[in-house]
From TrEMBL, chains A, B:
Compositional bias ranges of the Low complexity kind: 7-16
N6-(pyridoxal phosphate)lysine: residues bearing it: 310
Region: Disordered, residue numbers: 1-25
Alphabetized Gene3D superfamilies for the sequence: Aspartate Aminotransferase, domain 1, Type I PLP-dependent aspartate aminotransferase-like (Major domain)
Keyword annotations of the record: Aminotransferase, Decarboxylase, Lyase, Pyridoxal phosphate, Transferase
Record bears the keyword Lyase: yes
Similarity annotation: Belongs to the group II decarboxylase family.
Protein name per UniProt: Aspartate aminotransferase family protein
Length: 486, 486
């Protein structure tokens, strides 16, 4: 019955399961192969990303991975060596200080190592009997994270229901925002729910409204990069009377700016609107005593998005949606007899199907829990402080450079800047040239009517000299494609 | 600037990034800790799942993981040792032959090892400059998997558009089904889209319709466990004239049954309805020359769901949604200037934002690609054949056991059975007792008006004697709680 236990490469692999008492012994040599391939690939790349641009990268990957599905397998060792090396050689590695475009963090080794165990055991968080310990670990961990967001809502009971802050683990801010809008849709007394957000809100707010069949969000202009409370009030004043959800942002994607949360909370309340705060980026400032006050006003929100794969140093996915009371999650309650039959639930088996819209669900909680315990609140807070400090250092360096213009002092760890005399086309071309040459990964953002280069500092190991080298790449970059723009 | 490079445990961890050329060296000892903790946990568990039931498991996990967020960290080694061991000791490990309730497969070591590299490099598939090689690897791999589903639709061009089968990688069948309904909603000429499915369809169809703001699906009774074509035709005949999506299932959750796909395809076409086939479970039968004919009729579908974390031996998540033509995915096109600005796309940077509703997105493609290459089509096909053979062996053993009743010969690898003279309450109690004792994880399903025990055979290493031992647990189980039922 055990298929081809030895012999052909694919046969020997067939018996190679990761789990059980024998799995770790099978994994050990394969993990060695992966680590070697990662190191070889990083050395071959020799920089933050591969040189040559999209076509060259695609060609090299195609050469490495063809045939994708051979008739006869090449065996685990060969496949891992070839494909992991190709992935590493062609990666934009956020652990390189010159890879600093996006909210894509370099993950901690501890988090990545923990995530291995999630794959080995493959618990699926859609029923207790697929994930006994993972269910419990998720409950403990989300309760603590929710209490970090909503510290004043202590646990309590009303009748048979236990009231306490709670959090769902998601694939990221986008799913968290989608769930937030869904919960608001279901709680709406006067449907259809109208979402109101700043022009600075994440694109996922608009996409979620479309997905959920809601009206297009009403957008408040944000010329200063943050929602103006007076402008928000005027917008709410003129809306038809129906259920409204105001969405504020704590850490915009373009500049890292934080909307004035306390004022927005008061205005939303005054107009009877619910409030969701997308703190995907800024939320983990809560780990830092120094930075946490920037999030004052957070607890007024009916729901808060945060991502630990941004300021939190987790590999994707590690999103969260926090709510002040478990009862707010009730619209997600769902029954599927094979997963949470009523008599099983009555007999004491935890019902976890209502903790996600997914069914099969990987325990992303494990890497999060390992990180929280390994670093502690102080340790994570210090990492947060470090990248915020880096952003100020970077802004200082830009201000000291006559050929560069700084957009604004950083709110979190995002810095916008540009060559003082460049056109928008030249700015875009500089970014693409550095990408094509494999020299730097910088982002782009439009603010105050101009295009800027964007650096999002998320690498705690980056040194001041790395930041200076990044700037030197810009100041020494040749100008091209500058004729057709302002 | 580098924070606390040495000294306190959390300080030493702060510098411990998984990426770059130094990451593999940092990871090696941590992975050793994880493997040891996994082996220790599995040994301590000593069976398919922990004994004691939900409360005892929760208590042990709570003891291990408290405090979840200490002020000062315990360091990576301690956190990994403690939490990975707790997770393993409290896991329902699908690599144990007695853990056979759900479509939760025991992952291959090669797939799990590959997934480690995804975490280390942390490419995020929402823009090319976060994932150069991962973008290319995903394109190559999904094209091959889509061609497996739609072999007759070769690549071709009409004007500037390249037409070929395509597939999206999802978090699982639930997200795939959700996307399928969303695509159908957006393609609907006469909205609102009406979904029509069998009573045997996965609960995610109903949940997706709710999420998307669609009318409640019209459900066709399936007393035989599969959709009856005549019944479907009568249902479609009586629907109001508007856009309709018929959903068929290839591998139901309860019994593994496959709807009569060719007839359903003809009826859908005759009534002008679109067809989606949820082959989350059955889809990978395509890897086996022997089993693939069970899926005849698949290519008539506008979209097909399949999960490689079921028959495919991947850790969650490894879902797919295949379509016969890339153009079908156009409703997902989406622009966010920081990720796919028009001038970057024109300059040749691949636009990947339309390949998911998520934004940050982990490269689940890597483990899939490593598995396809390592095993080849033959190797995966043999694994498929093996578990299907096991199911027949298991059915044989049940038929030979006078005290047990077999529901039906298996369609894929799911087998329903029950003690011949037990009440439904007794069946449910037997399952819970085995769970509480930590002796077996069996599923449950209702069919032909009765409750059955369910075994879903997905472990290629399971031997006939393991199957006999599983049956012995049932035949020797004491009967309890049987007084109030039929």
């Amino acid at each position: 019955m055990p298929p081809h236990p030895a012999g052909s490469p694919s046969g020997s692999l067939a018996a190679g399961l990761a789990g059980g008492t024998q799995g770790p012994g099978r994994l050990r040599p394969l993990l060695g192969t992966v680590l070697t391939a990662l190191a070889d690939g990083a050395t071959a790349r020799g920089g933050p990303l591969p040189a040559g641009g999209p076509e060259a990268v695609a060609r090299r990957v195609r050469e490495a991975c063809t045939p994708v599905l051979p008739d006869t397998g090449t065996g685990a060792e060969e496949a891992l060596r070839t494909l992991v090396r190709a992935l590493a050689e062609g990666a934009a590695d956020p652990a390189d200080p010159r890879c600093t475009a996006h909210l894509q963090c370099p993950p901690l080794a501890a988090a990545v190592a923990a995530d291995l165990a999630a794959g080995v055991l493959n618990p699926s968080l859609d029923s207790w009997d697929q994930a006994p310990s993972a269910t419990a670990l998720e409950a403990e961990t989300t309760a603590v994270l929710a209490a970090l967001v909503y510290p004043h809502q202590g646990p309590g009971s009303q009748g048979p229901v236990h009231h306490a802050p709670d959090a769902l683990i998601t694939t990221g801010g986008t799913e968290s925002n989608q769930l937030a809008l869904l919960l608001a849709r279901e709680h709406a007394a006067h449907p259809p729910l109208q979402v109101v957000c700043g022009a600075n809100a994440h694109h996922s707010i608009h996409r979620a409204a479309w997905l959920l069949g809601l009206p297009e969000p009403v957008t408040v202009d944000t010329p200063a990069g943050i929602v103006d409370p007076g402008e928000l009030a005027r917008t709410l004043e003129h809306l038809p009377r129906r259920s409204t959800l105001v969405v504020a942002t704590a850490g915009t994607t373009d500049t890292g700016a934080i909307d004035p949360l306390p004022q927005i909370g008061r205005i939303a309340e005054a107009y009877g609107a619910a409030l969701h705060i997308d703190a995907a980026y800024g939320g983990p400032l809560l780990f830092s005593d120094r930075e946490a006050p920037k999030l004052d006003g957070l607890t007024a929100a009916a729901s808060v998005t945060l991502d630990l794969h941004k300021l939190g140093w987790q590999p994707v996915a590690a999103g969260l949606l926090a709510v002040p009371d478990t009862a707010a999650l009730r619209p997600l309650d769902h029954r599927a007899d094979y997963l949470n039959a009523a008599d099983d639930t009555e007999a004491g088996m935890p019902d976890v199907l209502g903790r996600s819209l997914r069914t099969s669900r990987r325990p992303d909680v494990l890497k999060i829990a390992v990180t929280l315990r390994a670093l502690g609140r102080d340790g994570i807070g210090r990492l947060v402080d470090t990248v915020c400090d880096q952003a100020h250092t970077f802004a200082d360096l830009i201000e000291q450079e006559p050929g560069l213009t700084l957009h604004r002092r950083p709110a979190i760890s995002t810095v916008l800047f540009r060559p003082a005399d460049a056109t928008d086309h030249q700015v875009a071309a500089i970014r693409r040239t550095l990408l094509d040459q494999g020299r730097a990964v910088l982002g782009r953002a439009r603010a105050d009517g101009r295009l800027w280069l964007k650096a999002t500092l998320l690498n705690p190991a980056t040194r001041p000299e790395d930041l200076q080298q990044l700037l030197d790449l810009i100041t020494s970059a040749p100008r091209t494609e500058g004729t057709t723009d302002r």
